[in-house]
Amino acid sequence: MAKKNKNNDSSRSASRKKPRLNVKKGLMVAVLFLVMLSFILTSIPNFGGGPASAPASSKTATTPTSAAKSSSTTFTKQGTLQFLRADNPDPLTIDIEVADTEVKRNQGLMYRRHMDQNKGMLFIMDEFKPQSFYMRNTYISLDILYLDDQKKVVSIQKNTTPLSEESLPSNGNALYVLEVNAGYTDTYNIKPGDQIEFELE
Prior knowledge:
This protein has 2 domains: 1-52; 79-200, Jelly Rolls (Sandwich). It contains 3 helices and 7 strands; from the N terminus they run H-E-E-H-E-E-E-E-H-E. It has helices at residues 6-43, 102-107, 184-187; strands spanning 79-85, 88-99, 119-133, 142-147, 153-157, 168-181, 195-200.
């Protein structure tokens, strides 16, 4: 009866153990790969749960949001506007900032904490049609004046509620929209039928 060769036994034993070590190494490599892949994917902007775009900032209820919160929140004078009141011949003039592109209209007065009484924002819309604004991300209570293609006041939404997403319609076709501080139209007796004129710088 032949004796077992110890060297052969140990080499067979070693060869049996090697696959186990390879499996463990393979698992470790796979885990490391998955961890690295996860790290790479989460570092890519807007992947896997990050906001797909800047916070919603649309002023018109039917327009997609596109402006970033980081947009300017300080007033920039771009023209002057004068109210022509039917029952008051005294001129009433304010400085205006103009929103005449989709991005500017979407941003509006959002994120601002203050606006002087003699200032306002004039929105120049693309179409003469019913308009509707809301107060998303807008901290200042406003009077919103809707004006037709002749620059006459169609309607006024007074003392709006900050941060509200309630629709504030024009109740008629409008081509221009003017936002001033809440109470302004009552203080200066501005009403539907009054007119504006403006000059841009």
